[in-house]
Every structure is written in structure tokens, then in C-alpha cells.
Amino acid sequence: MRCVHLFDLDAVNPLGDAPFRTFLAGGIAAGDRLLALFAERCGPGRFLVHAALGGSFPGKYSHGCVEVSPKSFPTLTDVCPGAHWFEREIYDMFGILPQGHPELNPLRFHEGWEKRFFPMRGDGSPSPEPRRGYRFLQVRGEGIHEIAVGPVHAGIIEPGHFRFSCAGETIQNLEIQLGYQHKGTESLFTGAPGMRQLLLSESISGDTAVGHSNACARLLEQVLGTPAEHAAEKWRSVALEVERIANHCGDLGGLSTDIGYLFGASHFSRLRGTALNLLMRLTGNRFGRGLNRIGGIGPRVPGIGAEDLLTELARLGSEVEEAGSVLLEAPSVVARMEGTGRLLAATAKTLQIVGVVGRASGRDIDARRDFPSPCFEEHPPRVVVAAEGDVLARARIRYEEMRSSFRWLSKVLSSPFAGTSSPHAGPASGPGRRTLAVSVEEGWRGEIVHAAIVEGNGHIVRYKIADPSFHNWPGLSFAVQKNVVSDFPLCNKSFNLSYSGADL
Amino acid sequence: MFESIVGRKRKGKATVSLPFGNLPEPFRGMPVIDPDFFYGETAETCARICETQAIDPKAQTLDLGRCIFCGLCEEACGARGIRFSPDPHMPYGKREHLVIGDTTPESPIADRTLRSLLGRSLHLREVSAGGCNGCDLEAQALGNPVFDLQRFGIDFVASPRHADGLLVTGPVSRNMKEALIKTYEAVAEPRIVIATGACAISGGIFRGSYAVEDGVGSVLPVDVYIPGCPPHPLTLLSALLGFFARYPGKIPPSFPTPRT
After folding, report:
1. What does the DSSP 8-state code read for residue A4?
2. Is B72 in the A-facing interface, judged by CB distances under 8 Å?
3. pTM for the complete prediction?
4. Which CATH class, in words, describes the domain spanning A185-503?
5. Right CATH number for A4-99 from 1.10.260.40, 3.40.50.150, 3.30.460.80, 3.90.1010.20?
6. Whether B111 contacts chain A with CB within 8 A
7. Average pLDDT of chain A?
């Protein structure tokens, strides 16, 4: 299965600082992308930093690790700018300083936390330096003013703080301060692998319950040696595409709301509901919770047969097609979206931007093709890429991806389902050796990466989640530069990133 | 322009009417406790598999404020103790109204003063305080043409200064505690606090984490808890209307029935 990979850590020697840098820089230069960079406490006062790369060809994974001192390690952001936020996270969770990092602001912890509190540092390390406070970048010049927004926003959305530095109406710099949704999610994943992790994975980002739980389920199954059968895998991928359709509809509705285009707003918010209701018919929950069990899918899944689902999808598909073409051909809509919030292809590549946003800026990456799960191996997806990188491109990518998903679903649902979908009975066993498991799934926002370090006794000692939002938030700051402040909501909606998934 | 008008005309009305019935299977809504739950090992079997300690095998109760509706207990007991019905109506109210066992407590109605002040015009400020966004999305969905919350005179507003109360989601992350309290203080009295979803009620699946407050109740006085993970928009709607005595079946005889 090319969507999950196990590395035998007992057979791996940590690299030195210089070879680790070369490994990272070389991998990126060869077309791999940074799946995750994270630290691990492997004993009292002993820490490793792991990097997982891959994707330059289908099923390509590579791993490297370096032992770092409890105090600091040389930053990797200079050779791989996409590591920028990962290093801030390492600092926040472990208290290990990435030496030379260009912007080491806390990512997770605000004022009010104990300044020496680093939740994953554990005992046995020398006392860390107190955490530095958050320093906003000051833009200076005549007429420059700041606008602070959030954490509580005007709409019904998650909390985050945005600080704009503007000259008149034009945004010169946007600083994004997150962490408000931090709930210690990764720490809750440690321990014996079981349903607990799977239920948690459904709550990493509520709108991506299927994407995250698919990634988590496959990871746990590989670790326990109980992979799901073909039929179960097929329903997982079907649910994934229905989730994609629901959320892309929601985004097109949200974009319509932000430009005051009521036709699009009301139609797409209703169509999103229709798609969510299909997910509910499949899984018993509008967000697809309860889809997965370890080794298969839930006993109530699928609550709707392939044929009925096909009929419903055909109806939904034609409505989406109709509403989407009206929306994206309306001159007032095109005029408003075209050229707005442009994220240049070079920036997207440098920052390792993934998913819809990446593909709208020329990044030809899609985990369904690059790390295919069994069903996508059998029925390859169509990857839609655009070059413009503006709001319009991101809207068009969503529309085209939905159309592809409808076609893909009609093909897959008309083909036979082999094997059983119910979970395996019988005892599951761990890998017996220290293992790093990496699991990748293309959620509707983009690439979801779950990585777990499992000890020989089968216990998970470190669980790392990389939601696509984590890669993409820095991109938003670049996309809004030189745009007017009033276009920020539109730009933000066109990214539509998860706060919970980034803050964990 | 013309296409959009034609599109609207062709679609017709999409809004649901009151009262609504069950949702299609296999929706996991209001749990039904069967007599078997009270005999033998059934309650223990259900409690053992529950990851949020929603089931108390001694008291033989199920706390909907902790339940994340995952369905594992139903699977463990073969649906003989607990089974999830497709009914979106759930108990709401104070904490004790959410604990069900051999009897289900009746959900409360707001007192006369609150009903006369807010019953026909309720403006809420939504605060997402550390959740996964699931509850927020369902609260947002209340505004779409299907649920159309505004027809009842209820709406979400941008500023707490314009609001009669808060609808809070999430376990209250430590990073959101201060912002939540400030938002609450900005709402004029009389104000109500509604806590929505397992996280906001008890911390849900995140209970016990170093970074959360295990629910809104430990930070603010809560008037109404609404269970679910996340609550279906119809669950939210029936609780909001029920609390203000505006849901059919919850309406005292002297009240006019709302038009839907």
C-alpha cells in the first residue's frame, strides 16, 4: 500500500547536522516535498529531529533523523523554507531552539502560559531558557498604520489573530498569530494504538473527519498488521470524495458570500448540505464520523447502497455543474476574483504549499496520485492544476475538482466491491521493532500526513499530524500583500484553512 | 443574471418545517436505552469501550454531555443496551438534564421574563473556543436556506455588543479563555450562554488535556447545554426553539404557534 510506509528505526542511524541538512536540501531539490518535520524525546534529555520527505514519484518516501542537543540545533529553514513553521512548533513543544531561525515567534503558547512550559520536553533535560514573547513585525514609514483583527471574528469561524500593516488601504504585511485552538491534540495520541486515536483523528479538523481518520486508520492498521480489505478501502475513498465535494461547495458558497453574490451563496450552501447529507447516509454523521474502524469500516457503513448513492450523486452533480458554471461565468464574479490574492508559483514552491492552493499556483501535487491508497491505485484521479494563483484560480480548481470527483465516483461506484468491509477479528500485534509509520491522504484541503513512532512494545510514543493548513497558512500572508484590506476576507476564504488542524 | 433567476425559480422552497421527524438511517441521533442496559453486565460492557467515560455503570446512566456519538457502545452490546436512534431531538438544559437512564429528565423552558425579552428576537454571538470547527460549521449551517434560522427571529451577529447571548463551541482552550470572558463581558444583560457540543459541555474527546478547560461551565455560567458531536443543525434548532417555548410540543397553551 503506497499511502502508508513503515521505516524500521532500529536499523537507522541518526545523521550528523551537516548530512541531515544535505538530506533535506537534496530531497527538496530532487522534487520531493517535506511531509513532516518533528522532534521526538527518545530518552531523558535526548532528542531526535525526524524529517519525512517524498512524492517525487508515486510511493516515494524517505526519512532522515538527527540527534539534537536539548538546548538548540542549527535551523533548517535556510535550506528548506517550508520547515519554517515546523521549527517554531519544535521550539514551542520541546524548548529546543532552532538556532538562526528567521522568525522564532511562539506558535502555540500565548502570554499567560508558564514561560518554561514545554509540554513534550519531559524530565531529565537541563532547564530550558524561558520562552520568548511574541514580537510582531513592525512596518515603518509615512502613513503606515496597523489593523488588528481577532481572535474572535465577525462570522461563525474559528479564532485567530491577524495583524495588518497598511499604507492607506493597501496591505504591506500580514502577520498571522495562531494557537488559539491549541488543545494538546498530539499528546493525546500517545499510548497503545486503538479506537482512541481514531476518534481523536475525527476531531483534528471537524470538516476533514474523513481525510484525517482515513490517514489515521491506515497508519494504525499498518502498525498492527490488520490492513482493511478492498471493499472497506473503496468506501473510505468514496467518503473522501463526497467530503471533498461538500467542502468545495461550501467554499464556493463562502466565496460568493464574500463578494455579495447571493445566488452562489444560497445555492452552494444548500448543495454543501446535500453532500453532507450523503455523507450522513453513508456513515451516520454529516461529517463522516464513524466511517472508520481499525481494519475496516463501521458496522453501520455504508448506510446507502452504491446504486442509490450513484443516483443521488448524479442529481447533485448536475446541480453543482449548473450553479458552478453560472457562478464562474458571471462577469461581475470574474472581475472581482481575477488577479486578487495572487500567490506566485515560485512562492508556493518555496513554502511547500500543498493542496488546492498549491495546485492553483502551479504545484502539480496530489497525494491521491503521489501516495495512492488502494482505490486510487486502481482508479487514478485527474489532477487539476492552474498557473494563475489568484482567487479565481482557486475557485476554478475547486469547481473542476468537484467535476472530476463526480466522474471518479460514478466510475468507482459502478465497479464491483471485492471482499468484506467489516474489521478483522482476532488479535493484532505490533511491529515488534521501533518503527516510524507515515500515512498520507489527500483531504479536500490538501495533503494530510500522519506520522507515528511506535516502540517495540507497540506503544505510540510520538504522534505527529501535519494538516495541509499548517503548510499553507504562511502562504496567505504572501497572497494578500499589495491587495486592499477589504479583499482580505475573499483571499482568506479562497485559502479556507483550518485553525484547529494547524493549532492541534 | 437571467440564468441565476431561472435557477432560483426552478429550485423552489428548500426550507424544513416544524416539527421535523427522524433523519434517514444510519444517522446516530438520540440514544435509546433498552431494558437490557439495567441487567447483567451490559452497562459495564458499554462503559468499558467508551473513550469519553460517558457511561456510568454504577448509576446506569448515559451522560449526553460527554457522549461523542461514536457508536462503539452500541456495537459492543450488540444494540441491546444502548442504540442510537435517527431522532435529532435531544435533551438540553442544565448538566443534569443531559444525563439519561431509566428516565429522561424533561428539558427546561426559559422563565417568563427571559421569554418575553428574548423569545421572539434573539441575537447570538458565536464564539469558537478551541473546538475542531465541527460545531461551528453546524451553527453556520443554521443560516442556510434549509434551516433558515432567521425566520424565527434568531440570528448570529458580528459584535457581542449587538448580542443577547453567546453560543460557545469547543472545550475552551487555555489560549481562548481570556477572549471568551472578554466577549461575555461585552454582552449587555440580561444575557444567556449556550454551550454546544460535547467539548463545550465536558471537554469531549479532549477532556484532561493540559491545554483545555474541559468545557464552558468552568469559565462562564451556562444557561443551556446542547449535546452532540457535533449537534445536527436540527438538534440545535429544536433546543433553541424549545428553550424559548417555540417548538411545537414545547409550547405552553397560551402561546401562538410559530409560522414555519
Report:
1. E
2. yes
3. 0.95
4. mainly alpha
5. 3.30.460.80
6. no
7. 93
